[in-house]
């Protein structure tokens, strides 16, 4: 579904992506992990078409999006759903209206059709009775669920999760991962999750890509990554200083 080929990106003198190559199969959950500053967010922005590489290309289901701009990107973006790190909910809108927003903006569905679809998605994330509330009236974990419902309301083929469990306690992290897995089993979308949750992410993803200093150093099934002999991978998984700090 997604193929990244030798992607390079530099900001001034800082080289952030240094030849990233990655393939995401149709219907799988791919997690991209790595320390802060490794390039995860920059890579995600390229996949979304928000940034454009200095070299390399990105192909989404056969369409090369590398040089597409503006309205030319819309056919691809219509197939996307995005769960933002902070939820990115509109405080002035109710939970219902937040979830309905993409449908009102991008479709010609009737009010009745929009209500039916929004209520279905809210039910799927366990928020059937919360549609009338404002984001400020619900918990952080619930706001994350609203963000997921909004991302899924257009029935996207590809869903991007940007650190979806940031700020949640360990129990809610596991609950959120279980929800993502459950929703995936029902809808079979292709998912890309940018995450720092170790080891919890291994229970969610089908495959893991480890990004280190702008390069994918290893990709494989969750179990294989946990058992990897690559010292960079093991240092990161164990939280050891060699992976997270450069020696002088």
SSE diagram, text form:
Elements (H helix, E strand, L loop, with lengths): L1 E10 L2 E11 L4 E5 L6 H8 L7 E6 L2 E2 L9 H4 L2 E4 L11 H12 L4 H14 L15 H13 L5 E5 L7 H18 L2 E6 L11 E6 L2 E7 H5 L4 H8 L2 H4 L4
Parallel strand pairs: 3-8, 3-9, 6-7, 7-8
Antiparallel strand pairs: 1-2, 1-4, 4-5, 9-10
Helix pairs in contact: 3-4, 3-5, 4-5
Task: Describe the protein's architecture and organization.
This protein is 35% helix and 25% strand. It contains 9 helices and 10 strands. Strands 6-7-8-3-9-10 form a 6-stranded mixed sheet. It has a 4-stranded antiparallel sheet with strand order 2-1-4-5, covered by helices on one side. Strand 1 (2-11) and strand 2 form a beta hairpin. Helix 3 (95-106) packs parallel to helix 5 (140-152) and helix 4 packs across helix 5 (140-152). The radius of gyration is 18 Å and the shape is globular.
